[in-house]
Design goal:
By secondary structure, this protein is mainly β. Helix content is 6%, strand content 49%.
């Protein structure tokens, strides 16, 4: 028997929250899931769903801070930020290769010039990428988050 006033009550709205944790992959293809292992004392894990699922799948092992809605153990991510990859904070944005120069345009519009980009990265002009730079601006690590 339902106790909801005849179904006229408004549906509960989900609240957007931000959670930090580590991305890990669980299971095997084709049933593989992308999980966020939270930093709370219980170490809860949430299954990642939504628009950023494919990007977060490519970040296994990275620490992220994601915002979105949680429902029944699933986390529908509406935005995220990479906090740590291999002990460093990466630069994230869209790769632009033109006239012999290579840069990343971040979401805030700032442009970061890159030196000594490998050919495999140069071939990804227009893709959303992350890079880790040494103190001289040379790329020491990178990954493709979304193809162009």
């Amino acid at each position: 028997m339902s106790c909801g006033g005849g179904g006229n009550a408004p549906a509960p709205t989900a609240e957007t929250i931000a959670i930090s944790g580590y991305i890990r992959l669980a299971g095997s293809t084709p049933l593989e899931k992308v999980m966020l292992k939270t930093e709370d004392p219980e170490g809860a894990e949430l299954e990642i769903v939504g628009d950023y699922h494919a990007e977060l799948h490519r970040l296994s092992g990275a620490k992220v801070r994601a915002s979105g809605e949680v429902s029944e153990g699933r986390f529908s991510v509406s935005s995220y930020e990479i906090e740590d990859i291999a002990g460093r904070r990466p630069i994230v944005g869209v790769l632009q290769v033109s006239d012999g120069s290579t840069s990343i345009v971040q979401t805030d519009g700032d442009r970061v010039n890159l030196r000594a980009a490998p050919d495999e990265l140069l071939a990804q002009d227009g893709a959303k990428v992350w890079v880790i730079l040494d103190t001289g601006g040379t790329i020491v690590g990178y990954g493709i988050l979304r193809e162009r």
